[in-house]
Amino acid sequence: MRGIAILFGFLLAGTIIQGTTGVPLPGNVIGLALFTAALFLKLIKLEWVEDSAQLLLKNMMLFFVPIIVATIAFWPDILRNGLPIVLTLVFSSLVTLAVTGLVTQGRAGKDQVPGEVERSEATKGDAGAR
Length: 130
Fold this sequence. Notes:
about 130 residues; mainly alpha; 2 domains; about 0% strand; extended
């Protein structure tokens, strides 16, 4: 019982912080960050919440009931608009992959001096000896 109280306490703390400060993060994410920090800082012990967390994980399917019910309720709309939905998902995924690749390549290039060719450590050592 103490574990559930701790978990919900962090959820409440995150919700209060989000509501009072206006941080653009959901309260549950803030609470999870606080909970993780408390675990790493040894402010709470894993044993205190382990059984409660296992109980929540065992019943996780219950948390997905609302989205399953909504999917069933809107199934005719989903079928009617299936092609645009699929095309939008595929297009947005491809754009995300492309942007991520370009940003990653751009960031990787920032680590090198312009005109410098990346060399192995052995080659760098040989060049310095000459």
